[in-house]
Description:
This protein is α+β, with helices and mostly antiparallel strands.
Amino acid sequence: MRDDIVIIGGGLAGSEAAWQAANRGAKVTLYEMRPKETTPAHKTGGLAELVCSNSLGSVDPVSAPGILKEEMRRLNSLIIRVADQVRVPAGSALAVDREQFSFGITQALESHPNVRILREEITDIPTDCLCIVATGPLTSDKLSQAIARLTHSNHLYFYDAISPIVDAESINMDIAFRASRYDKGEDDYLNCPMDEAAYNKFYEAVLSAEKVQPKDFEKTPYFEACLPIEVMAERGRQTMQFGPLKPVGLEDPRTGVRPYAVVQLRTENAHRSCYNLVGFQTRLTYGEQKRVFRLIPGLEQAEFLRFGSLHRNTFINAPQLLRNTLQFKARGTLFFAGQLVGVEGYTDSAAMGGLAGINAARGLAGLSLVVPPPTTAHGCLLSYITTADPRHFQPMNTNFGLFPPLAAPVRDKERKRQLISQRALEDHAAWMTQSGLS
Protein backbone atom coordinates (compact mmCIF):
# COMPACT_ATOMS: atom_id res chain seq x y z
CA MET A 1 0.00 0.00 0.00
CA ARG A 2 1.13 3.53 -0.73
CA ASP A 3 1.88 5.72 2.27
CA ASP A 4 -0.19 8.68 1.02
CA ILE A 5 -3.91 9.39 0.75
CA VAL A 6 -5.13 9.85 -2.81
CA ILE A 7 -7.96 12.33 -3.26
CA ILE A 8 -9.71 12.53 -6.61
CA GLY A 9 -11.35 15.88 -7.27
CA GLY A 10 -10.30 19.41 -6.35
CA GLY A 11 -13.70 20.92 -5.68
CA LEU A 12 -14.89 22.05 -2.27
CA ALA A 13 -15.16 18.52 -0.86
CA GLY A 14 -11.81 17.34 -2.20
CA SER A 15 -10.07 20.52 -1.08
CA GLU A 16 -11.51 20.25 2.44
CA ALA A 17 -10.64 16.54 2.60
CA ALA A 18 -7.04 17.30 1.58
CA TRP A 19 -6.75 20.07 4.19
CA GLN A 20 -8.17 18.00 7.05
CA ALA A 21 -6.03 14.96 6.23
CA ALA A 22 -2.84 16.95 5.70
CA ASN A 23 -3.30 18.87 8.95
CA ARG A 24 -3.40 15.53 10.76
CA GLY A 25 0.01 14.57 9.43
CA ALA A 26 -1.04 12.52 6.41
CA LYS A 27 0.70 12.86 3.08
CA VAL A 28 -1.92 13.76 0.46
CA THR A 29 -1.91 13.53 -3.32
CA LEU A 30 -4.77 15.57 -4.73
CA TYR A 31 -5.73 14.92 -8.34
CA GLU A 32 -7.60 17.60 -10.27
CA MET A 33 -8.06 17.21 -14.03
CA ARG A 34 -8.60 20.91 -14.70
CA PRO A 35 -7.29 22.83 -16.59
CA LYS A 36 -6.02 19.99 -18.84
CA GLU A 37 -9.54 18.57 -18.97
CA THR A 38 -12.48 20.85 -18.35
CA THR A 39 -16.20 20.51 -17.70
CA PRO A 40 -19.18 22.32 -19.24
CA ALA A 41 -19.54 24.39 -16.04
CA HIS A 42 -16.03 25.29 -14.92
CA LYS A 43 -14.15 28.27 -16.32
CA THR A 44 -10.77 28.07 -14.55
CA GLY A 45 -8.27 25.56 -13.23
CA GLY A 46 -8.55 26.85 -9.68
CA LEU A 47 -9.42 24.53 -6.81
CA ALA A 48 -12.86 24.89 -5.21
CA GLU A 49 -14.21 26.95 -8.12
CA LEU A 50 -17.82 27.97 -7.51
CA VAL A 51 -19.75 27.25 -10.68
CA CYS A 52 -23.20 28.52 -9.69
CA SER A 53 -24.10 30.92 -6.88
CA ASN A 54 -21.36 32.68 -4.92
CA SER A 55 -23.30 32.13 -1.67
CA LEU A 56 -22.49 29.37 0.81
CA GLY A 57 -25.82 29.93 2.57
CA SER A 58 -26.88 31.31 5.92
CA VAL A 59 -24.56 31.99 8.83
CA ASP A 60 -27.42 32.67 11.21
CA PRO A 61 -26.41 30.64 14.30
CA VAL A 62 -30.05 29.63 14.79
CA SER A 63 -30.35 28.04 11.34
CA ALA A 64 -29.38 24.56 10.24
CA PRO A 65 -26.78 25.82 7.68
CA GLY A 66 -25.42 28.20 10.32
CA ILE A 67 -24.94 25.37 12.81
CA LEU A 68 -23.08 23.34 10.18
CA LYS A 69 -20.74 26.25 9.41
CA GLU A 70 -19.97 26.81 13.09
CA GLU A 71 -19.14 23.12 13.52
CA MET A 72 -16.86 23.30 10.49
CA ARG A 73 -15.23 26.45 11.83
CA ARG A 74 -14.42 24.59 15.06
CA LEU A 75 -12.84 21.81 12.99
CA ASN A 76 -10.56 24.42 11.36
CA SER A 77 -12.29 24.14 7.99
CA LEU A 78 -10.30 25.63 5.13
CA ILE A 79 -13.47 26.31 3.14
CA ILE A 80 -15.06 28.33 5.95
CA ARG A 81 -11.83 30.10 6.89
CA VAL A 82 -11.22 31.36 3.36
CA ALA A 83 -14.91 32.18 2.87
CA ASP A 84 -14.82 34.35 6.00
CA GLN A 85 -11.73 36.11 4.64
CA VAL A 86 -13.20 36.95 1.22
CA ARG A 87 -16.79 37.54 2.28
CA VAL A 88 -18.86 40.12 0.39
CA PRO A 89 -22.03 41.86 1.68
CA ALA A 90 -25.07 39.57 1.47
CA GLY A 91 -27.03 40.03 4.67
CA SER A 92 -27.02 36.87 6.79
CA ALA A 93 -25.64 34.77 3.91
CA LEU A 94 -21.97 33.87 3.58
CA ALA A 95 -21.35 35.13 0.04
CA VAL A 96 -17.83 35.35 -1.31
CA ASP A 97 -15.74 36.89 -4.07
CA ARG A 98 -15.55 33.70 -6.14
CA GLU A 99 -12.14 34.43 -7.69
CA GLN A 100 -10.53 35.30 -4.37
CA PHE A 101 -12.19 32.29 -2.78
CA SER A 102 -10.76 29.83 -5.29
CA PHE A 103 -7.37 31.58 -5.19
CA GLY A 104 -7.25 31.37 -1.38
CA ILE A 105 -8.09 27.65 -1.35
CA THR A 106 -5.59 26.89 -4.12
CA GLN A 107 -2.82 28.88 -2.45
CA ALA A 108 -3.39 27.25 0.94
CA LEU A 109 -3.18 23.74 -0.47
CA GLU A 110 -0.30 24.43 -2.87
CA SER A 111 1.76 25.78 0.03
CA HIS A 112 0.92 22.96 2.46
CA PRO A 113 3.99 20.75 3.01
CA ASN A 114 1.88 17.57 3.17
CA VAL A 115 -0.08 18.20 -0.04
CA ARG A 116 0.97 17.36 -3.58
CA ILE A 117 -1.37 18.50 -6.38
CA LEU A 118 -1.30 16.66 -9.70
CA ARG A 119 -3.19 18.09 -12.66
CA GLU A 120 -4.22 14.80 -14.20
CA GLU A 121 -7.47 13.04 -15.00
CA ILE A 122 -8.05 9.83 -13.06
CA THR A 123 -10.15 7.36 -15.02
CA ASP A 124 -10.15 4.47 -12.58
CA ILE A 125 -10.19 4.14 -8.80
CA PRO A 126 -6.80 3.07 -7.39
CA THR A 127 -6.68 0.03 -5.10
CA ASP A 128 -3.15 0.38 -3.69
CA CYS A 129 -3.90 3.24 -1.28
CA LEU A 130 -6.43 4.95 0.91
CA CYS A 131 -8.53 6.88 -1.58
CA ILE A 132 -11.25 9.54 -1.35
CA VAL A 133 -13.44 10.06 -4.40
CA ALA A 134 -14.85 13.61 -4.31
CA THR A 135 -15.44 14.43 -7.95
CA GLY A 136 -18.78 16.16 -7.53
CA PRO A 137 -21.89 16.45 -9.70
CA LEU A 138 -19.95 16.73 -12.96
CA THR A 139 -17.79 13.62 -12.58
CA SER A 140 -16.08 12.80 -15.87
CA ASP A 141 -17.60 10.13 -18.08
CA LYS A 142 -14.65 7.75 -17.69
CA LEU A 143 -14.56 7.96 -13.92
CA SER A 144 -18.37 7.70 -13.78
CA GLN A 145 -18.08 4.44 -15.69
CA ALA A 146 -15.49 3.21 -13.21
CA ILE A 147 -17.76 4.10 -10.27
CA ALA A 148 -20.68 2.42 -12.02
CA ARG A 149 -18.65 -0.77 -12.43
CA LEU A 150 -17.61 -0.68 -8.78
CA THR A 151 -21.05 0.08 -7.34
CA HIS A 152 -23.10 -1.64 -10.06
CA SER A 153 -24.86 0.74 -12.43
CA ASN A 154 -28.20 0.57 -10.63
CA HIS A 155 -26.58 2.35 -7.68
CA LEU A 156 -25.26 5.35 -9.66
CA TYR A 157 -27.41 8.27 -10.75
CA PHE A 158 -26.66 10.99 -13.27
CA TYR A 159 -29.34 13.52 -12.41
CA ASP A 160 -31.26 14.81 -9.43
CA ALA A 161 -35.00 14.34 -9.50
CA ILE A 162 -35.83 15.89 -6.16
CA SER A 163 -39.24 16.37 -4.60
CA PRO A 164 -39.88 19.07 -1.98
CA ILE A 165 -39.73 18.25 1.72
CA VAL A 166 -41.93 19.93 4.32
CA ASP A 167 -41.71 20.19 8.10
CA ALA A 168 -44.12 17.73 9.72
CA GLU A 169 -45.26 20.29 12.26
CA SER A 170 -46.49 22.58 9.47
CA ILE A 171 -48.88 19.97 7.99
CA ASN A 172 -52.54 20.41 8.91
CA MET A 173 -53.49 17.05 10.40
CA ASP A 174 -57.14 18.05 10.52
CA ILE A 175 -57.04 17.55 6.75
CA ALA A 176 -54.24 15.06 6.07
CA PHE A 177 -54.76 11.42 7.08
CA ARG A 178 -52.43 8.47 7.58
CA ALA A 179 -52.83 5.47 5.28
CA SER A 180 -50.94 3.29 2.83
CA ARG A 181 -52.48 2.45 -0.51
CA TYR A 182 -54.83 -0.57 -0.22
CA ASP A 183 -53.82 -0.65 3.49
CA LYS A 184 -50.56 -2.33 2.49
CA GLY A 185 -47.56 -1.53 4.67
CA GLU A 186 -47.20 0.80 7.62
CA ASP A 187 -48.74 4.23 7.99
CA ASP A 188 -45.56 5.99 6.87
CA TYR A 189 -47.61 8.01 4.38
CA LEU A 190 -49.68 11.10 4.99
CA ASN A 191 -52.38 11.81 2.43
CA CYS A 192 -53.72 15.22 1.44
CA PRO A 193 -57.14 14.72 -0.19
CA MET A 194 -58.46 16.93 -2.99
CA ASP A 195 -61.98 17.39 -4.26
CA GLU A 196 -62.52 18.23 -7.94
CA ALA A 197 -62.51 21.99 -7.38
CA ALA A 198 -59.25 21.90 -5.41
CA TYR A 199 -57.65 19.66 -8.03
CA ASN A 200 -58.65 21.94 -10.90
CA LYS A 201 -57.31 25.00 -9.08
CA PHE A 202 -54.03 23.21 -8.41
CA TYR A 203 -53.80 22.02 -12.02
CA GLU A 204 -54.25 25.52 -13.43
CA ALA A 205 -51.65 26.91 -10.99
CA VAL A 206 -49.07 24.30 -12.00
CA LEU A 207 -49.61 25.07 -15.70
CA SER A 208 -49.18 28.82 -15.29
CA ALA A 209 -46.31 28.77 -12.77
CA GLU A 210 -42.85 30.12 -13.63
CA LYS A 211 -40.24 27.47 -14.41
CA VAL A 212 -36.46 27.51 -14.02
CA GLN A 213 -34.63 27.38 -17.33
CA PRO A 214 -31.70 24.98 -16.95
CA LYS A 215 -28.15 25.86 -17.94
CA ASP A 216 -26.72 23.84 -20.81
CA PHE A 217 -24.72 21.56 -18.49
CA GLU A 218 -27.80 20.92 -16.33
CA LYS A 219 -30.07 19.76 -19.14
CA THR A 220 -31.22 16.21 -18.61
CA PRO A 221 -33.57 13.92 -20.47
CA TYR A 222 -36.94 13.34 -18.84
CA PHE A 223 -37.61 9.75 -17.86
CA GLU A 224 -41.18 8.53 -17.98
CA ALA A 225 -40.90 7.17 -14.44
CA CYS A 226 -39.63 10.50 -13.13
CA LEU A 227 -41.39 13.31 -14.98
CA PRO A 228 -41.58 16.80 -13.46
CA ILE A 229 -45.05 17.50 -12.09
CA GLU A 230 -45.52 20.40 -14.54
CA VAL A 231 -44.70 18.15 -17.53
CA MET A 232 -47.43 15.77 -16.39
CA ALA A 233 -49.87 18.67 -16.15
CA GLU A 234 -48.97 19.79 -19.67
CA ARG A 235 -50.00 16.37 -20.98
CA GLY A 236 -53.59 16.81 -19.88
CA ARG A 237 -55.89 17.64 -17.00
CA GLN A 238 -56.15 14.08 -15.70
CA THR A 239 -52.51 13.00 -16.19
CA MET A 240 -51.52 13.76 -12.59
CA GLN A 241 -54.50 11.74 -11.37
CA PHE A 242 -53.07 8.70 -13.11
CA GLY A 243 -49.62 9.48 -11.70
CA PRO A 244 -48.57 10.68 -8.24
CA LEU A 245 -52.02 12.11 -7.41
CA LYS A 246 -53.97 8.93 -8.10
CA PRO A 247 -56.55 8.27 -5.36
CA VAL A 248 -56.95 4.56 -6.12
CA GLY A 249 -56.60 2.39 -3.02
CA LEU A 250 -56.99 5.28 -0.60
CA GLU A 251 -60.03 6.22 1.45
CA ASP A 252 -60.30 9.02 3.96
CA PRO A 253 -61.00 7.11 7.20
CA ARG A 254 -63.02 10.02 8.53
CA THR A 255 -65.50 9.92 5.64
CA GLY A 256 -65.05 6.46 4.11
CA VAL A 257 -64.93 8.21 0.71
CA ARG A 258 -62.17 7.99 -1.89
CA PRO A 259 -60.99 11.54 -2.72
CA TYR A 260 -60.96 12.93 -6.25
CA ALA A 261 -57.15 13.14 -6.05
CA VAL A 262 -54.55 12.59 -3.32
CA VAL A 263 -51.09 14.03 -2.72
CA GLN A 264 -49.06 11.51 -0.76
CA LEU A 265 -46.32 12.54 1.68
CA ARG A 266 -43.69 9.98 2.66
CA THR A 267 -41.73 10.25 5.90
CA GLU A 268 -38.05 11.04 5.40
CA ASN A 269 -36.65 9.87 8.73
CA ALA A 270 -37.32 7.73 11.78
CA HIS A 271 -38.44 10.77 13.75
CA ARG A 272 -41.22 11.53 11.24
CA SER A 273 -40.19 15.16 11.47
CA CYS A 274 -40.16 15.82 7.73
CA TYR A 275 -42.13 14.53 4.75
CA ASN A 276 -41.42 14.26 1.04
CA LEU A 277 -44.10 15.17 -1.56
CA VAL A 278 -44.08 11.91 -3.49
CA GLY A 279 -43.59 12.35 -7.23
CA PHE A 280 -43.25 16.14 -7.09
CA GLN A 281 -39.87 16.59 -8.77
CA THR A 282 -40.13 19.92 -10.52
CA ARG A 283 -38.51 22.81 -12.33
CA LEU A 284 -40.83 25.39 -10.78
CA THR A 285 -38.96 28.30 -9.19
CA TYR A 286 -38.67 28.17 -5.41
CA GLY A 287 -41.14 31.02 -4.97
CA GLU A 288 -43.66 29.34 -7.24
CA GLN A 289 -43.26 26.00 -5.46
CA LYS A 290 -44.17 27.66 -2.19
CA ARG A 291 -47.19 29.40 -3.74
CA VAL A 292 -48.50 26.50 -5.82
CA PHE A 293 -47.87 23.62 -3.43
CA ARG A 294 -49.55 25.49 -0.59
CA LEU A 295 -52.76 25.13 -2.63
CA ILE A 296 -52.71 21.45 -1.65
CA PRO A 297 -55.24 20.86 1.16
CA GLY A 298 -53.34 20.36 4.39
CA LEU A 299 -50.25 22.21 3.16
CA GLU A 300 -51.64 25.75 3.30
CA GLN A 301 -49.04 26.70 5.94
CA ALA A 302 -46.35 24.26 4.86
CA GLU A 303 -42.79 25.11 5.81
CA PHE A 304 -40.44 23.89 3.09
CA LEU A 305 -37.22 22.33 4.31
CA ARG A 306 -36.07 21.61 0.77
CA PHE A 307 -37.51 22.62 -2.58
CA GLY A 308 -37.82 20.34 -5.58
CA SER A 309 -35.45 20.32 -8.53
CA LEU A 310 -34.29 18.41 -11.55
CA HIS A 311 -30.73 18.89 -12.77
CA ARG A 312 -27.54 17.14 -13.85
CA ASN A 313 -25.82 15.44 -10.95
CA THR A 314 -23.78 12.32 -10.40
CA PHE A 315 -24.36 10.66 -7.04
CA ILE A 316 -24.33 7.21 -5.52
CA ASN A 317 -27.00 5.45 -3.50
CA ALA A 318 -25.19 6.16 -0.23
CA PRO A 319 -27.54 4.21 2.10
CA GLN A 320 -26.91 1.12 -0.01
CA LEU A 321 -23.16 1.60 -0.38
CA LEU A 322 -21.58 3.56 2.47
CA ARG A 323 -20.77 3.06 6.14
CA ASN A 324 -21.37 5.97 8.50
CA THR A 325 -17.64 6.69 8.30
CA LEU A 326 -18.07 7.45 4.56
CA GLN A 327 -16.18 4.26 3.72
CA PHE A 328 -17.38 2.08 0.87
CA LYS A 329 -18.92 -1.01 2.48
CA ALA A 330 -17.17 -3.38 0.11
CA ARG A 331 -13.72 -1.75 0.44
CA GLY A 332 -12.70 -0.04 3.66
CA THR A 333 -9.77 1.74 2.02
CA LEU A 334 -12.14 3.69 -0.24
CA PHE A 335 -14.11 6.75 0.86
CA PHE A 336 -16.66 8.87 -0.98
CA ALA A 337 -17.33 12.53 -0.20
CA GLY A 338 -19.09 15.68 -1.36
CA GLN A 339 -22.13 15.85 -3.60
CA LEU A 340 -21.26 12.38 -4.85
CA VAL A 341 -22.63 10.93 -1.57
CA GLY A 342 -26.00 12.63 -1.97
CA VAL A 343 -25.73 15.95 -0.18
CA GLU A 344 -26.81 19.27 -1.63
CA GLY A 345 -24.93 22.56 -1.57
CA TYR A 346 -21.40 23.87 -1.25
CA THR A 347 -21.13 23.76 2.55
CA ASP A 348 -22.71 20.34 2.96
CA SER A 349 -20.35 18.93 0.32
CA ALA A 350 -17.32 20.46 2.00
CA ALA A 351 -18.45 19.15 5.39
CA MET A 352 -18.62 15.59 4.09
CA GLY A 353 -15.21 16.09 2.48
CA GLY A 354 -13.85 17.19 5.83
CA LEU A 355 -15.17 14.09 7.59
CA ALA A 356 -13.75 11.82 4.89
CA GLY A 357 -10.37 13.54 5.20
CA ILE A 358 -10.36 13.19 8.99
CA ASN A 359 -11.26 9.51 8.84
CA ALA A 360 -8.83 8.68 6.04
CA ALA A 361 -6.00 10.30 8.01
CA ARG A 362 -6.99 8.40 11.14
CA GLY A 363 -7.17 5.15 9.19
CA LEU A 364 -3.70 5.76 7.76
CA ALA A 365 -2.39 6.37 11.29
CA GLY A 366 -4.02 3.23 12.65
CA LEU A 367 -6.52 5.16 14.76
CA SER A 368 -10.20 4.37 15.14
CA LEU A 369 -12.51 6.22 12.78
CA VAL A 370 -14.96 8.77 14.15
CA VAL A 371 -18.65 9.49 13.62
CA PRO A 372 -20.19 12.73 14.92
CA PRO A 373 -23.33 12.43 17.08
CA PRO A 374 -26.67 12.58 15.20
CA THR A 375 -27.62 15.63 17.28
CA THR A 376 -24.97 17.68 15.43
CA ALA A 377 -25.36 19.13 11.94
CA HIS A 378 -22.57 16.90 10.62
CA GLY A 379 -24.06 13.88 12.32
CA CYS A 380 -27.68 14.27 11.29
CA LEU A 381 -26.67 14.83 7.65
CA LEU A 382 -24.39 11.80 7.77
CA SER A 383 -27.14 9.77 9.42
CA TYR A 384 -29.57 10.70 6.65
CA ILE A 385 -27.31 9.73 3.76
CA THR A 386 -26.39 6.39 5.31
CA THR A 387 -29.71 5.29 6.84
CA ALA A 388 -32.37 6.68 4.47
CA ASP A 389 -34.51 4.19 2.58
CA PRO A 390 -32.27 3.26 -0.39
CA ARG A 391 -35.36 2.66 -2.55
CA HIS A 392 -36.29 6.34 -2.36
CA PHE A 393 -32.93 8.01 -1.74
CA GLN A 394 -32.60 11.61 -2.90
CA PRO A 395 -29.86 14.17 -2.21
CA MET A 396 -30.41 16.32 0.88
CA ASN A 397 -29.14 19.55 2.42
CA THR A 398 -28.81 20.24 6.15
CA ASN A 399 -32.15 21.28 7.63
CA PHE A 400 -33.91 21.19 10.98
CA GLY A 401 -36.05 18.26 9.87
CA LEU A 402 -32.98 16.01 10.07
CA PHE A 403 -32.15 16.77 13.70
CA PRO A 404 -33.50 14.36 16.35
CA PRO A 405 -36.37 15.82 18.38
CA LEU A 406 -35.65 17.48 21.71
CA ALA A 407 -36.20 15.43 24.85
CA ALA A 408 -39.13 17.67 25.82
CA PRO A 409 -41.43 19.15 23.14
CA VAL A 410 -41.15 22.92 22.63
CA ARG A 411 -44.01 24.73 20.92
CA ASP A 412 -42.27 28.04 20.22
CA LYS A 413 -40.45 27.53 16.92
CA GLU A 414 -37.66 30.05 17.55
CA ARG A 415 -36.98 28.69 21.02
CA LYS A 416 -36.99 25.15 19.65
CA ARG A 417 -34.35 26.03 17.08
CA GLN A 418 -32.24 27.79 19.67
CA LEU A 419 -32.26 24.68 21.83
CA ILE A 420 -31.41 22.41 18.88
CA SER A 421 -28.53 24.73 17.97
CA GLN A 422 -27.26 24.80 21.56
CA ARG A 423 -27.46 21.02 21.85
CA ALA A 424 -25.70 20.53 18.51
CA LEU A 425 -22.73 22.73 19.37
CA GLU A 426 -22.39 21.31 22.89
CA ASP A 427 -22.47 17.74 21.58
CA HIS A 428 -20.08 18.63 18.75
CA ALA A 429 -17.60 20.11 21.22
CA ALA A 430 -17.82 17.02 23.46
CA TRP A 431 -17.33 14.74 20.43
CA MET A 432 -14.24 16.67 19.32
CA THR A 433 -12.75 16.36 22.80
CA GLN A 434 -13.53 12.66 23.11
CA SER A 435 -12.17 11.96 19.62
CA GLY A 436 -9.00 13.97 20.11
CA LEU A 437 -9.98 16.44 17.39
CA SER A 438 -9.83 19.60 19.53
